[in-house]
Amino acid sequence: MVVASTLAFLAVNDKLDKDGQGTRKGELVEMAVENEKRVGVNSGGMDQAASVISLPTSALYISFFPVLHAESILLPITRTVPRAVFVCANSLVVSDKVVGAKTRYNLRVVEVLVAARILARLLSLSFISGAPASKPTLREILGAYINARIRIPGSEVLETNEVRGQASPALSVEQLEEGLGRLLGECEVLRASKLVGRVGGEEGLTMEEMVEASGLSKEVFEEVYLSWVDVEATHFQLYKRAKHVFSEALRVLQFRKLCLSVSGSSEEGDLPESTLKDLGALMDASQESCSELFECSCPELNRLTTIAREAGAYGSRLTGAGWGGCTVSLVAENDVEGFISRVKAAYPPYRDLEGERLSEVIFATKPSGGAFGTAIS
User: Fold this and answer.
1) What is the pLDDT of residues 95-148, one digit of tens each?
2) In sequence order, what E strands does 57-113 have?
3) What is the spatial distance between Cα 238 and Cα 275, in angstroms, rounded to a whole number?
4) Domain boundary at 53, 70, 92, which?
5) Which pLDDT does position 167 carry in this prediction?
6) Is the domain of 38 the same as that of 109?
7) What is the pLDDT of residues 24-42, one digit of tens each?
8) Does one domain contain both 129 and 43?
9) Dihedral sign from CA coordinates of 44, 177, 294, 140
10) In a domain, 93, yes or no
11) Identity of the highest mean pLDDT range in 171-180, 194-203, 309-318
12) For the chain, what is the largest distance between any 2 Cα atoms, rounded to a whole number of angstroms?
């Protein structure tokens, strides 16, 4: 909706790209992200980017640093035996982003940012000591960590420039993969048992514990992390959020690697079903992390993804921001009708739906082009 309304505004005001003039795709994504913030929701921009710059039969590997960039990754689902499609299923649970911002969307933003700062302090990453009121991201922590622990040539420039907000060379996929794998183990220092000595029970930190762990005064902490956004929580789950972000980023790289590893084979050849099983396993792991670590799922989404797997899906996860909305499942193309029938029978909200009403909430789809032309820019 945000992309559609932004696009409509640009069209009415004759600001769309024409022969290289006017608004470009990257600018449209940035506008959509800013427009969502104006209604009180701080989103990362992934959905907006996918809505604008997607290409047919492909997934997008999207990076936002040092600039917005999208790499088209050909999906193997048109070459596997059996061929596969994605089935979208609406949980019929509505999550209002604005209403739930304080306890969901915006809270996750703050938890992730504070986790980044505390992790940097605990790992003795030097740029924190030189910028006590900075607000580093987990992506910046990754760059600094790789420089400090893995010592990749040229990453010294990356660390310095990221903290200063300047553009710098992007890390390679291989460097990111190694750094993420090692940081997942380092995240253990964010557990409450490590930070405040709490053994068993609540893993989150109270506001007071979080402020103390940040190394900032209460006044500075509130200015840096709370003055620009409203949040509401008794405990802040820094360990869970950081572990989800790093593990999800690693799964994205693994999904990309798997797709690329089979794209080099003959386009006429058939790929084994194991390719679909491997992709599906990554989707399942993502759903588990969304549910257990980022806690952005809900009982209905958990139930619907479980039903999808039991109905024959290779993998199933929530899609979008979570707390309601839809799931996406990887399904054999020749079994779509049977799959939908089995899901309908097992998911209570679907049992009374027939015909068009059913097809509006569960349907097969394939990746298609974005909402704004064909070229990525």
Assistant:
1) 887 788 899 999 999 999 999 999 999 999 876 555 667 889 999 999 889 988
2) 58-63, 69-74, 84-90
3) 34
4) 53
5) 36
6) no
7) 666 777 777 777 776 666 5
8) no
9) negative
10) no
11) 309-318
12) 63
Q: Is the pLDDT of residue 208 over 80?
A: yes
For residue 229, the enclosing domain spans: 105-240
Instruction: Assess contact for 292 and 325: CB atoms under 8 A.
Output: no
The pLDDT of residue 19 is 56
DSSP 12-42: HTT-B-BTTBSB-HHHHHHHHHHHHHHTT--
Alpha helices in the chain (DSSP H): 2-12, 25-38, 46-53, 106-122, 127-130, 138-145, 155-164, 173-186, 192-195, 207-214, 218-221, 238-263, 273-292, 299-310, 336-346, 355-359
In the listed set 210, 225, 240, which residue is the last one of a domain according to the structure?
Answer: 240
Task: Tell me which residues are annotated as active site.
Answer: 47
Structural domain contains residue 182 = yes
Q: What is the mean pLDDT of residues 362-370?
A: 91
Do 118 and 190 share a structural domain? yes
Question: Is residue 271 a part of any domain in this protein?
Answer: no
Is there a domain that residue 180 lies in?
yes
Domain count, the chain: 2
Pair (119, 232) in one structural domain = yes
Lookup: tokens for 53:
């710059």
323-357 confidence digits (pLDDT tens) = 999 999 999 999 999 999 999 999 999 999 999 99
Name the residue among 241, 145, 236, 150 with its Cα closest to residue 186: 145
